[in-house]
Design a protein that fits this description.
Blueprint: E1 3-8, H1 16-26, H2 34-43, E2 50-58, E3 61-73, E4 76-81, E5 93-94, H3 100-113, E6 117-125, H4 130-141, E7 144-158, H5 163-169, H6 172-187, E8 190-195, H7 201-214, H8 225-236, E9 239-246, E10 249-259, E11 262-270, H9 279-293, E12 299-301, H10 308-313, E13 316-327, H11 331-366
Parallel strand pairs: 4-6, 11-12
Antiparallel strand pairs: 1-2, 2-3, 3-4, 3-5, 6-13, 7-12, 7-13, 8-9, 9-10, 10-11
Helix pairs in contact: 2-8, 3-4, 6-9
């Protein structure tokens, strides 16, 4: 058996067997696909961060891969998942029948190229997935101290595609909002649209950017990411871009991505000047009905955050975590491991102190 680790700088360089590995991974999570990584590299990761995709090839077959960012410090090298605040999931890839041996081989190949590797950070991910479990075991077997870190709550909804049943199960506040606001919105000249096609991309992007500029959200730090994502999503058939207009003026927008029976609610915004119409809620309901009735999705995912409004639309919560690994054969890695261990041990005390301080401040303000 011949094994080697190959480094690719961009998914456009992938040969067929590597592209196939990423395509299979996209069946689980769209953000593990080659097009997603390509747009992330093109729009975001330039300059200080050096993106690299490490692939283990065995007898001509891609067996494992991990997309990482390399940062060189004076004390050594740090590697972390190719992910940022746009990313809700970033996990190493494994072939269907691959496991711990492939993780070890790929990790050894990475370590051979980074002799002064201090730390490796993987996530956000599902800590119980096979890839996460195998990678944690591989790191620990190579004398890395591994810590699971909480990243964020993830609200999602398993669905059988029955829109009427879903709506009946929502709380009264959502149902009443839809019942009261939809007639008002439509009678005032409101319209709800869903863009899917490449031919409509320019109009869809213009409408989205108009709403985003009028919303409460800060400007995008990487202005090319969303246009690149929308183009990629239309080419792949993922895009469901909802726009609410009032007399032709866009007042709310939501980017949903649909792939392999799963809908991800990626971005949303609305113009606060038209807040009284609840166009955001109307648009969410419209898109929910669209993906259930026309796309037959089995799951809807609100991705990142524990916001109260997400709990009203979803039914289940899971935690996304990260694996923070420190090299115990490097002095800086040992220091990082000790610091992380102390943080773990003192977390309950620090949380108690935070709650006490908050309570004291509240009581003082009320006097």
């Amino acid at each position: 058996m011949t094994r080697k680790v190959i480094v690719y700088r961009h998914p456009s360089d992938f040969p067929t067997e590597v592209a196939a590995l990423f395509e299979r991974a996209a069946n689980r999570e769209l953000e593990m696909s080659a097009p997603w990584h390509a747009n992330l590299i093109d729009a975001v990761f330039q300059g200080e961060d050096s993106p690299a995709i490490y692939v283990l090839v065995s007898d001509g077959q891609a067996r494992a891969a991990v997309a990482l960012l390399h940062r060189r410090k004076w004390w050594g090298h740090e590697l972390r998942s190719m992910a940022n605040f746009y990313t809700s999931y970033s996990e190493p890839l494994l072939a269907e029948d691959a496991g711990l041996p492939e993780c070890l081989a790929l990790l050894d190949g990475i370590r051979s190229q980074h002799k002064r590797l201090v730390s490796l950070y993987l996530g956000p991910l599902d800590p119980d997935s096979p890839a996460s479990v195998h990678w944690k075991a591989a790191l620990e077997s190579r004398r890395y101290a591994c810590f699971l870190q909480f990243r964020f709550a993830n609200w999602y909804l398993p669905t059988n595609g029955d829109w009427e049943s879903y709506l009946a199960e929502r709380d009264s506040q959502i149902r009443n909002t839809l019942k009261r606001k939809q007639p008002k919105f439509l009678s005032a000249g409101g319209r709800l649209q869903v863009y899917r096609n490449l031919a409509d991309l320019d109009d869809a992007l213009s409408a989205y950017q108009h709403v985003y500029a009028k919303s409460w959200k800060r400007p995008e730090p990487y202005p090319q990411f969303i246009p690149g994502l929308l183009r990629c999503a239309t080419e792949q058939g993922w895009l469901r871009l909802g726009i609410a207009t009032l007399h032709g003026t866009p007042i709310a927008a939501q980017i949903w991505l649909v792939n392999r029976g799963r809908a991800a609610i990626f971005k949303l915004a609305y113009d606060e000047a038209f807040k009284s119409y609840s166009a955001g809620s109307l648009l969410t309901a419209h898109l929910m009905q669209e993906v259930m009735s026309n796309d037959g999705v089995r799951e809807v995912d609100y991705l990142i955050g524990n916001d109260a409004y997400k709990q009203g639309w979803m039914s289940h919560r899971r935690d996304r975590k990260a694996i923070q690994a420190f090299n115990l054969q490097h002095p800086v890695g040992c220091f990082g491991a000790v610091r992380e261990l102390l943080a773990d041990q003192t977390r309950p005390l620090r949380e108690w102190w935070r709650q006490l301080s908050t309570r004291s401040s509240t009581e003082a303000a009320s006097k």
